[in-house]
Amino acid sequence: MASFRYAVSVMPKPGILDPQGRAVEQSLPHLGVDSVHAVRVGRRVELTIDAAGETDARAVAERLAGELFANPLIETWSVELVSAASSVRSAGPA
Amino acid sequence: MASFRYAVSVMPKPGILDPQGRAVEQSLPHLGVDSVHAVRVGRRVELTIDAAGETDARAVAERLAGELFANPLIETWSVELVSAASSVRSAGPA
Q1: Does the pTM of the predicted model rise above 0.90?
Q2: Which residues of A touch B11 (CB under 8 A)?
Q3: How far is CA B24 from the centre of its chain?
Q4: Predicted-assembly ipTM surpassing the 0.85 threshold
Q5: What is the CATH number of domain B2-85?
Q6: Which site among B36, B60, B62, B63 would you substitute to test the A interface, given the most A Cβ atoms closer than 10 Å to its Cβ?
Q7: Which CATH class is domain A2-16+42-85?
């Protein structure tokens, strides 16, 4: 058994209204910043998955991304392997 | 002038309570998943910065990360260059 740490990035699809990104853009002039545009705000979920191999672990991550973390109608996601360890780590403070 | 696309990842610091991460963990048994732990939920902000070079652009991204995107008391962040273009792109739908 091994332990795999993934980061799942969930972003609004192109063309979908992103109120948080718009809010950031509207606050930029107050910070004296005029060189920034196309701001999009999404989520990043990090999680550790115990599995026999990376293929199995990634399948769990992809399933959770599509069923729990993202709304497939309006969001896209990508799954990135952050680290892997050959022994199961304790969960630690969550 | 060039255009740089960054992704800023903002995560709760270790030890800081993460109610969203806890909520995800508590929903996992309902999905029949028992191999996942240490879930942390943060934000991902993508933005395009126009600057003369990557050093200048990154400085803007780092400043915005610490002043606007993250709360330095309870969150950590990292800035990742996603893509660069030698000409200024239009903002597109935001």
Answers
A1: no
A2: 44, 46
A3: 19
A4: yes
A5: 3.30.1280.10
A6: B36
A7: alpha beta
